[in-house]
Amino acid sequence: MFLIPTKSLDIVVTLCYYLGIRRQAGVFIRLPPSRGEELKITTKGRYGLKAIIDIAIATQREKCVNLRTIATTHGISDSYLEQIISQLKKAGLVVSTRGAQGGYLLSTGASEISVGDVLRVLEGSLSPVECVESGEAACGTGDCGSCSTKSVWGKMYSSVNTVVDSITLQDLVNDALQKGEETHE
Questions:
Q1: Phi and psi dihedrals of 108, rounded to 5?
Q2: Of 145, 144, 55, whose CA–CA distance to 104 is shortest?
Q3: Rounded to an integer, what distance in angstroms lies between the CA atom of residue 166 and that of residue 146?
Q4: I want to staple 121 with a disulfide (CB 3.0 to 4.6 A). Which of 27, 91, 128, 157 is the partner?
C-alpha cells in the first residue's frame, strides 16, 4: 500500500475512472465492464446463426438461398450479412453457387455443424476471460497458478462449449420448422 498526495489524488481518481477502477472505502478496485460485454454474443454471431439456419433449411429442400432473401427476412443490411456469410464461406461451412438460381448451401449436413462451430467462426473464442484459453496471466497479476477465480472461469468456459457443441444446426432447423418459421418457399 502507498499514500498519494492529496493534489495528485484527483488525477489518480480520474485516471482510474477511465480504466474501470473505482474507489470504495478508500481502496481502489477494478470493476467488471458495466454491461458485461465479454459474455455477450454480438450481432454478428446472432445474425450469422439465423442466416445459417435459413441456409440449412434451403439445403434440405435442395435449393439455394440468396443473401437478399435472408437479409429481408431478418432485417439485416445486405452488406453486413455479406461480411458474415463471407466468414462462414471462408471457414468452409457454406458454399456458393452462381447463376439465376444461385445462392448459398451448407457445405455438409446440418447434423455435422454445431452452433459452437458457427459461433467460433464469427465470434472467436467463447472464453469468458483471456487466461482460460491462453494460460497466460492476462489480468496483469502475473501468476495464474495462485488465481482463486480461474477455476470459475474454466468451468464457465467448459460449460458454454459443451452446450454450444451439443446443439447442431439440424436441431435448430427442426425447431424452426416445428415453430412454423419456414422461410424461402
A1: -150, 180
A2: 55
A3: 32
A4: 91
Q: pLDDT digit string (tens) for 60-86?
A: 999 999 999 999 999 999 999 999 999
Helix axes 78-90, 43-60, angle to 10 degrees: 70
CA-to-CA distance for 57 and 110, rounded, in angstroms? 9
2 Cβ contact list (under 8 Å, min separation 6): none
Q: Name the residue type at position 104.
A: Y
- What SS3 state is found at 152? helix
CA 92 to chain centre: 18
Rounded CA separation 120/48 (Å): 11
In angstroms, the Cα distances linking 85 to 41, 43, 81, 135 are 17, 13, 6, 31
Q: What is the pLDDT of residue 120?
A: 94
d(CA 94, CA 107): 5
pLDDT band at 140; cut points 50, 70, 90: low
- What are the cell numbers at 105? 448451401
Question: What pLDDT is recorded for position 182?
Answer: 52
